[in-house]
Write a structure and sequence with these properties.
The protein is an alpha+beta fold and about 260 residues long. Helices cover about 20% and strands about 35% of the residues. It folds into 2 domains: about 140 residues, OB fold (Dihydrolipoamide Acetyltransferase, E2P), CATH 2.40.50.90; about 100 residues, Beta Barrel (OB fold (Dihydrolipoamide Acetyltransferase, E2P)). The protein is built from 5 helices and 16 strands. Strands 9, 10, 11, 12, 13, 14, 15 and 16 form an 8-stranded mixed β-sheet that branches. Strands 1-2-3-6-5 form a 5-stranded mixed barrel.
Length: about 260
């Protein structure tokens, strides 16, 4: 059962639209409405279920996450809140889900995050309401709720590149101190070790740098800072994460 949740608050500036009745909960971040519309709960990533995909295993706590979202939303009327791109390539609605509950609808994303049954997962074209979700995630992580008590979801150490190479293809949170922040051409590199061909690196390409500039966030000032990077780990001259928008970087401590 989900605990400690509260009605929707603080997620403003959305385009609100009628949703309908939740007829099925696919997993911890996807529901189907009675209209046939699939809704992906934008801003969150719950533990994934295999759902008949070959060579894919359920992530830890995936069934618990689906059960929790079903407890909250199945058979209930919902409203949809759009804050950016509204459809994905699969035709799913990308929306914040508000479950009708008397006069105070419940923000499903916030509840799942606060229960430790999802983590923040953002996109460059869908960035609203993330501050509130980050705050809920930080609290759940501090209290070791849900996924945060399972080593599968541990925050990884940036100074252990060999461990990160074992996580290539996974979505991870990686924490460490930026040894060097440097611009080369149209890219910015945040290096977490002195051997850039082996150590962990965060790479910010030109389109992302335009978002950083728009937000008044100069990534070059992060040199010496303790930061947490979230994203998909790949391998190119050591393990790395491509940063596509500012919210992928959390500053833990300034230099």
């Amino acid at each position: 059962m989900l605990a400690g949740a509260h009605p929707a608050a603080g997620c403003d500036g959305l385009r609100m639209a009628p949703g309908g009745l939740v007829s099925e909960v696919v997993d911890g971040d996807t529901v189907l409405l009675d209209s046939g519309l699939a809704v992906r709960l934008i801003g969150t990533q719950a533990p994934k279920l295999a759902l008949s995909r070959e060579d894919f295993a359920d992530w830890p706590l995936a069934h618990e996450a689906r059960a929790a979202l079903a407890e909250l939303a199945l058979g209930r009327n919902v409203q949809l809140g759009y804050g950016g791109e509204e459809k994905d390539r699969y035709g799913r609605a990308l929306a914040h889900l508000f479950v009708e509950d008397g006069d105070t609808p419940i923000w499903a994303q916030s509840r799942m995050i606060e229960a430790g049954l999802a983590r923040v997962y953002s996109f460059p074209d869908n960035r609203r309401c993330l501050d509130q979700l980050f705050a809920g995630e930080a609290q759940a992580r501090a209290e070791k709720l849900g996924i945060w008590a399972d080593p599968y979801y541990s925050v990884r150490a940036a100074d252990r590149p060999d461990d990160l190479l074992g996580r290539v293809g996974d979505y991870e949170l990686v924490e460490g101190r930026v040894v060097l922040a440097d611009r080369s051409g149209s890219r910015v590199y945040l290096n977490f070790g002195r051997y850039w061909k082996e150590d962990f690196t965060a790479v910010i390409e030109a389109p992302a740098l335009r978002l950083f500039e728009r937000d008044g966030f100069d990534p070059l000032v992060l040199e010496g800072a303790l930061v947490r990077i979230r994203g998909w780990v790949d391998e190119r001259d050591g393990p790395r994460i491509e940063v596509t928008h500012p919210e992928q970087i959390e500053v833990v401590a300034r230099p």
